[in-house]
Amino acid sequence: MSKVATRFAPSPTGPLHIGGVRTALFNWLYSKNQGGKFYLRIEDTDKERSKEEFKNQIINSLKWIGVEYDGDEYIQSKQINNHIEIANELLKKGFAYKCYCSNEEIEEQKERARQKKIPYIYNRKWRDVDEKDAPKDVKPVIRFKSKIEGTSILKDLVQGDVEIENNTIEDFVILRNDGTPTYNLSATVDDHNMSMTHIIRGDDHKINTFKQIQIYLAMGWDVPQFAHIPLIHTIDGKKLSKRDNASTLDDYSKIGIIPDALRNYLLRLGWSYKDKEIFTKEESIKYFNFEGIGKSPSKLDMSRILSMNEHYIKTLDENFLYENLINYCEEYKEKIPEEKKSSIKSSLSFLKNKAKTLEDIFNNLKYIIVDEFLISQEDLKILDETAKKIIKEFNSKIENLSEFKREKLEPIVNDLIANHNTNFKGVGQPLRLVLTGSKFGPGIYDILISLGKNEVLKRLSSKII
To answer: What are phi and psi of 446, to 5 degrees?
Structure first.
C-alpha cells in the first residue's frame, strides 16, 4: 500500500467557507495521523470567477488555523492539456462518445423531467450513433459512457456501503464543446496524478464519486478510498452557505476568535473521541480517525464557539495570549502605543476576565490607551457635589503615596466611604467614570494599578471641577 496522501481542493471563486476549513482539517489530520502527506490543490479552471485574492485568502486562512500543506500549491489550470488528453483517450477506448445535442434539446429534456417531477438524466441520444451521421456544423461535447445495467457499491469510510442503480448515473460531460474539461474529469485526473490514496470531502459529492470511480476503472488506475463527511448546517438546520454570517474564517478572526479555539471547535463538529472536549494540535493528530466521524449533519453554534474561545482565553499562557491580542488589535482595531504595552501585559489577568473574544479584551483595555474621552451627559449626573469632593480628596490622598498598590489604596477608599457616609459604589463609580469615561468596566483597584499613580493623578486633575 502506498503512503497515505490526501488533498484539499478549493476553487478560488470566493472566500474560504467554514465547511471547507473543516474538510481541510479532517484531510490534514488523517494524513498526519497516518504519517502521510497533505496537499493543497487550487481548482482555478473557472477563469471568469477565479481570483488571485481568493487564492491568497484560502492559503492565509489555512495558515491562520494551523493546517499546513506539504510542498507547493498544485494549480489545476496548469494541467488542463493533460485532462484533455485523457478525455480523448477515453473516447478512443470507447468509454466516451461525442454528443451533438444542442442547448435547446438539453433544456427541453430538463423541462420534461421537471414537469414529471423526476431527476433529469440525459437521454443518451448520441451514445450509439455512428460518427458519420453527425452534423458537420455542430461542435460536440464529449460524454462518458456510464454503466447502464446493475448496481455499484461505494465502500465509504464514513457512510458505510452506499449502493446506487447504475442507470441513475447519467452519461456525464467530460469535455465541453469549447474544449474545456469538466470538474469530474479534471478532479479525477489530478487525484490520479497526485497519487491520492484517500479522498475526504462533503457528502454532497457522493454522486460525483460514483462518476469518478468509473473514470478510474476505465483508465485502469488504482481507485482511492473515499470518505464523505456530513455537511455543516446552520443552527436552524439549513445547509450553511457562503451568504450566512460567520461562514468564513475572516468573520471569526475579526471578532477575535483564537485560531486554536476555532480549530478545536471544528474538530469536534461532527467528530468525537470518548468524552474528550479539548484537544491540543498533537492530540488532534494522535486520536483522529474515521470511526469518530458522525453520519448526521452538524449545526454551527456560535455560542459554543464563544464558549470554546473563552476557555482558551482563560487557560492560554499569558505571553501567548498577549501576542495574539497585540496582533489582533493592530490588524483590526488600532496600533497599541509602545508605552502602553507593559500596562496591558501586566493587566491581562483581569482584562481577560469574562472575555469571550479578543475584541472583548480590547474593549476592556481601551481606557488604558485613550488619552482623551468624553463622559456622556447621563453619566455626568453621577458627578454630584459629593462625588466631586470624593474625587478631590482621593486625589490629594494618593499624591504622597510611595507605593501604589492595593493594600495602600484600600484604607484611603474605606476612609472616604466612612467620611462621606456612602458605600463602595459611591466612591468607586465616580472614580471609574473620571478615569475611564465609563461607569462599567474592570474593578476600581485594577484600573488604578494598571494606569499607575502618575496617569491617575493626571486624569483626576483634568476632571476635577
So the answer is: -60, -40
> Of all residues in the chain, what percent are helix, strand and coil, respectively (each to 5)?
50, 10, 35
Task: Locate 259 and state its grid cell.
Answer: 485560531
Cα–Cα dist 73/444, whole Å: 53
Q: What is the DSSP string of 405-438?
A: SHHHHHHHHHHHHHHTT--HHHHHHHHHHHHHS-
Given a cut of 80, whether residue 241 has pLDDT beyond it is: no
SS3 assignment, position 198: strand
Nearest to 312 by CA among 271, 281, 273, 344: 281
Q: What is the pLDDT of residue 245?
A: 60
Q: What is the pLDDT of residue 441?
A: 86
> What is residue 11's DSSP assignment?
-
Between CA 234 and CA 241, with CA 235 as vertex, the angle to 5 degrees is 10
- pLDDT for the residue numbered 25: 98
Distance CA 249, CA 253 (A): 6
C-beta separation of 234 from 57 below 8 A: no
Supply the pLDDT for residue 356: 97
Q: Residue type at 9?
A: A
DSSP H helical ranges for 195-354: 206-219, 249-255, 259-268, 281-287, 302-315, 318-332, 338-351
pLDDT at 244: 61
Judge whether residue 312 has pLDDT over 80: yes
- Position 347, amino acid: S
- What one-letter code names the amino acid at 168? T
Q: Residue 306: which region, alpha, beta or left (left: phi > 0; alpha: psi -120 to 50)?
A: alpha
- Alpha-carbon Rg of the chain, whole angstroms? 31
- Output DSSP code: residue 70: S
Enter the C-alpha cell of residue 369.
490607551
Nearest-angstrom CA–CA distance, 256 and 329: 9
User: CA distances (Å), 411 to each of 282, 424, 432, in order?
Assistant: 50, 12, 18
Residue 162 and residue 183 in contact, taking contact as beta carbons nearer than 8 Å: no
Residue count (the chain): 465
47-56 long-range CB contacts below 8 Å, 24 or more apart?
47/77, 49/11, 49/13, 49/14, 50/11, 50/12, 50/13, 50/77, 51/12, 51/13, 52/12, 54/12, 54/13, 54/14, 54/15, 54/16, 55/12
- Joined grid coordinates for residue 265: 471547535
Q: For position 235, what pLDDT does the model report?
A: 82
